[in-house]
């Protein structure tokens, strides 16, 4: 089995044999946060940004970080090595730990649980590269702290399933008239050669790939970080979504209507090339 080794509470072990208590608060309350980051040719991409965000998520839910950045780096490099190296993604989860009982308030002295796994990085198939992806819009019914990368993802799961049931790849959350983000992606809307993305707030996750997209787009076109109205999404020339496991990818149909020409657009192609360039430049450099 590929990616057979995981890390759980101090031990590298076969993923198929990893066990955790049902009393763990990650299981009982989704009292837990996580990170996902891509690994290209054995090198973790945007390591510091991901672990700064994990540290922030932990701080916001008042769990003391179990590791320093250097310790996380060593732990994950070992996980990558034990899974054969190369290109993959790694997932890290920290829960508040367990107590004997079930109480909403924090247990005194609980030790955070740490879990990490490696898995295959999805690739954009040649067919999807040619056609782009599809999305539906859904009313945002999540909680008020979407800036915390919490494993409490039921609303995201339901929205993504709604998209899948409609034959689409992603669900885009709309709150009132504001376009926010996808169920597991950030969003960019391109109109008249200008790219816009919502500002970070407690209504969206501060996407690490969104930041890369913004940096790279800055060299290509005007960039605006601001609220986006639903009507702008509907009138866009191009729409992109981004996530650590898929870079920036084009959405070419939303709610069954074509976006712009209905094909991946020229700005996305430029951005994608800039992304590939960046990855190449980073080859062989330290991850932290
Ligand atoms: C709700 C949500 N927004 C945005 C993102 C994109 O964040 P990143 O680019 O850091 O993967 C994710 C990724 O999982 C997400 O779950």
UniProtKB/TrEMBL annotation:
GO molecular function, one term: 4-amino-4-deoxychorismate lyase activity
Cofactor(s) annotated in UniProt: pyridoxal 5'-phosphate
Record's keyword annotation contains Transferase: yes
A GO term from the CC aspect: cytosol
Catalytically driven reaction(s): 4-amino-4-deoxychorismate = 4-aminobenzoate + pyruvate + H(+); L-leucine + 2-oxoglutarate = 4-methyl-2-oxopentanoate + L-glutamate; L-valine + 2-oxoglutarate = 3-methyl-2-oxobutanoate + L-glutamate; L-isoleucine + 2-oxoglutarate = (S)-3-methyl-2-oxopentanoate + L-glutamate
A single BP term in Gene Ontology: folic acid biosynthetic process
EC number from the UniProt entry: 2.6.1.42, 4.1.3.38
InterPro entries given in the database record: Aminotrans_IV, Aminotransferase-like, BCAT-like_C, BCAT-like_N, Class-IV_PLP-Dep_Aminotrnsfr
Keywords: Aminotransferase, Folate biosynthesis, Pyridoxal phosphate, Transferase
Keyword Translocase: no
Pathway where it operates: Amino-acid biosynthesis; L-leucine biosynthesis; L-leucine from 3-methyl-2-oxobutanoate: step 4/4; Amino-acid biosynthesis; L-isoleucine biosynthesis; L-isoleucine from 2-oxobutanoate: step 4/4; Cofactor biosynthesis; tetrahydrofolate biosynthesis; 4-aminobenzoate from chorismate: step 2/2; Amino-acid biosynthesis; L-valine biosynthesis; L-valine from pyruvate: step 4/4
SUPFAM superfamilies xref list: D-aminoacid aminotransferase-like PLP-dependent enzymes (SSF56752)
Family of this protein: Belongs to the class-IV pyridoxal-phosphate-dependent aminotransferase family.
Role played: Acts on leucine, isoleucine and valine.
Protein name: Aminodeoxychorismate lyase
Protein species of origin: Povalibacter uvarum
